Amino acid sequence: MTYKEAARLIASDYTRRKQAYQQDEQTALEQDAEFLACEKELRALLFNEVQGKPIDKKKLAALQKSNAQMRKRLGLVPPAPACKICNDTGRHNGKFCECVVRLSVQNESNVSIPLHDFEAVDFSVYGEHEPAYRKLFDDVRTICTLYPKNKKRCIVLSGNTGNGKTYLAGCAANEMLQRGMSVLALTAFAANNRFLKYHTCFDADKASYLDPMLDCTLLIIDDLGTESILKNVTNEYLYLILNERNLAGKLTLFTTNLTPNAILNRYGDRIYSRLFDKSLTYAKSLSAPDIRKAF
Question: Among 237, 4, 207, which residue's Cα sits nearest to residue 100?
Answer without folding.
Answer: 4
